[in-house]
Design goal:
Elements (H helix, E strand, L loop, with lengths): L2 H12 L6 H7 L11 E4 L1 H7 L3 H11 L5 E7 L2 E6 L1 H15 L13 E5 L14 H16 L3 E5 L7 H13 L2 H6 L1 H16 L4 H14 L3 H25 L16 H10 L3 E4 L2 E4 L9 E4 L7 H16 L3 E5 L5 H13 L8 E4 L4 E3 L2 E2 L10 H19 L6 H19 L6 E2 L2 H4 L7 H18 L14 H11 L1 H11 L3 H20 L9 H22 L8
Parallel strand pairs: 4-5, 4-9, 9-10, 11-13
Antiparallel strand pairs: 1-3, 2-3, 6-7, 7-8, 11-12
Helix pairs in contact: 1-2, 5-19, 7-9, 7-10, 10-11, 12-13, 15-16, 18-21, 18-22, 19-21, 19-22, 20-21, 21-22
Length: about 575
């Protein structure tokens, strides 16, 4: 049990069940100072229930609670302050981490059920920019977190691989492109052609008609149009996968917009059968007034379908294919209205799994406080940012440890990892400013700082040749080790909170706090000195190394043993 659960259980017994353990857990607080103990219970909520003053309630409870799990219990006004038994908690915690290893904090609340995660989703024939980073790395971290809770993640890259832009691309390729140029640099060349089309179309608007005609041929299954579309898609995916490989991210499905072309008619028919379709100015809609939402536009007046039609078909397909427990859509905050409409439409259809569809929104990446701009053909390429991050990491590693083996590989793990960590340490909904020099620093609240702390702990374990024994007695009771122990003990609770909030920053902040607490301990204690506490100190080092590595893994980072 966590320290809070131990306290809550003791209070439940003392209160004869007048408050449940869960109710007490919600009332517990962290004291502002270590001098006031490890857990505080404010008695204000009991005053009305027991018809007594909070101070009197605190004094009476202190007399009722047995002290075997606590060093002491103090009454300070209306607060009951609990000081945990450091020897007992340190022994239980260190033995548990040593026994469980990287499985510490794992649960099986999911029983292997599927969680589908719609993430990344770049457009074919366009580069992956910094704008795609958040959806990609948040989605990947959530996949790792749900797996740790016993679910099976299904990562879906819903590619933007359909639409009138492909008519434009085909026209541009046939007029100004060559097979050789596309094969040499697929994304750059296809983007160049796309930009050229728009520039020329400003003075030659008939190009737009040609593009619409080619897209119509594509929709009708024209052999040449389909062959060119498939080629553009394959070439784009090859290049996308190079960037995903750099990030260390894989997918279970690349079924994009095109995949659902033949699945939308069924959705429209189902909506019609349920009597949900209405006509409005020639368009077909689902009225969502009762949800205080704008109508869901299912078909435009010309009969063309829209994003929501495709997303309805996709969600229905995913439910049938994966029978998901949850369907997460890791998509920017600006799309929240769209997902409210999607969920509301499924509720109107009477599907009880509508509430298992969850939009996981996130804020913007800014630079100098301003939104990253996408001017004509000019965007901040993710690949270029990752390459520069790796180079910055290599420069620092070379300066500090020039003889390090596998220097380039470790620099990649640190540099690219720094970009991922910087994104994930920020609360998902917050906007954040991106400055690469700050991101790849080895000091401060950064990925390299956490990785370096892990490498430092591994160095201590190598020097000591420490072999952990899950049956040994490891006990520590000094103030610096206690801060580390509390963070280790709270780890399962941390994982659960990250899962419930769908918030990877909870894990990243735990990693930062654990690294900071350990480095303070390292600065104050001579860990390798021969004395009666040596093995217990090294057990602490081992536990820190284990949990930091697991924190980093959940976020999608590597934990080098040397840096």
């Amino acid at each position: 049990m966590s320290e809070r659960e131990v306290v809550a259980q003791a209070l439940t017994t003392a209160l004869d069940g007048q408050l449940s353990t869960d109710e007490i857990l919600n009332l517990l607080e962290n004291p502002k100072s270590a001098a006031h103990g490890d857990v505080a219970f404010p008695t204000f909520a009991l005053a009305k229930l027991l018809h007594k003053a909070p101070q009197a309630i605190a004094s009476e409870l202190a007399e009722k609670i047995p002290t075997e799990n606590f060093e002491k219990i103090e009454v300070v006004g209306p607060y009951l302050n609990f000081f945990l038994d450091k020897n007992k908690v340190s022994q239980d915690t260190l033995n548990k981490v040593i026994t469980d290893g990287s499985n510490y904090g794992s649960e099986n609340v999911g029983y292997g059920r599927n969680v589908v995660i719609d993430m990344s989703s770049p457009n074919i024939a366009k580069p992956i920019s910094m704008g795609h980073l958040r959806s990609t790395v948040i989605g990947n971290a959530l996949a790792n977190i749900v797996a740790k809770m016993g679910y099976t993640p299904v990562k879906i890259n819903h590619l933007g691989d359909w639409g009138t832009q492909f008519g434009k691309l085909i026209v541009a390729y046939k007029k100004w492109g060559t097979e050789e140029a596309v094969k040499k640099a697929p994304i750059q060349e296809l983007l160049r052609l796309y930009v050229e089309f728009h520039e020329v179309a400003e003075t030659e608007p008939e190009l737009e008609d040609e593009a619409r005609a080619w897209f119509k041929r594509l929709e009708d299954g024209d052999e040449e149009a389909l062959a060119l579309w498939q080629w553009f898609r394959d070439e784009s995916l090859t290049e996308f996968n190079m960037i995903y490989d750099k990030l260390g991210i894989t997918f279970d499905s690349f079924a994009g917009e095109a995949f659902y072309n033949d699945k939308m008619d069924e959705v429209v028919d189902i909506l019609d059968e349920k009597g949900l379709l209405q006509e409005s100015d020639g368009a077909t809609i689902v009225n969502l007034d009762k949800y205080d939402l704008n109508p869901a536009l299912i078909k435009k007046s010309d009969g063309a379908t829209l994003y929501i039609t495709r997303d309805l078909a996709a969600a229905l397909y995913r439910k049938r294919t994966y029978d998901f427990a949850k369907a997460l859509y890791v998509v920017g905050n600006e799309q929240s209205g769209h997902f409210k409409q999607l969920i509301a439409t499924f509720r109107e259809l009477g599907y009880d799994w509508a509430d298992d569809i969850i939009h996981v929104p996130f804020g913007l990446i800014t630079q100098g406080g301003k939104k990253l701009s996408t001017r004509k053909g000019k965007i901040i390429l993710l690949e270029a940012v990752l390459n520069e991050a790796d180079e910055l990491a290599l420069n620092q590693i070379t300066a500090k440890n020039p003889d390090l083996p596998r220097k380039e590989q470790i620099a990649h793990e640190v540099g690219t990892g720094a970009v991922i960590f910087h994104d994930l340490k920020n609360d998902r909904l917050n906007n954040f400013d991106f400055d690469l020099e700050e991101v790849v620093r080895f000091e401060g609240e950064t990925g390299p700082y956490v990785q370096y702390t892990h490498a430092r702990s591994m160095s201590l374990l190598r020097k000591s040749e420490f072999k952990p024994d899950p049956t040994a007695t490891y006990q520590l009771n000094d103030a610096d080790s206690w801060e580390v122990i509390k963070l280790l003990q709270a780890y399962p609770e941390t994982i659960e909170r990250a899962f419930k909030k769908l918030e990877p920053s909870v894990i990243a902040k735990h990693a930062i706090h654990l690294a900071q607490a350990f480095n303070k301990y390292y600065a104050h204690v001579r860990i390798l000195d021969e004395n009666s506490e040596r093995d217990s100190r090294l057990a602490l080092v081992y536990a820190v190394a284990t949990i930091l590595k697991e924190d980093l893994r959940l976020l999608g980072l590597k934990a080098p043993d040397e840096m």
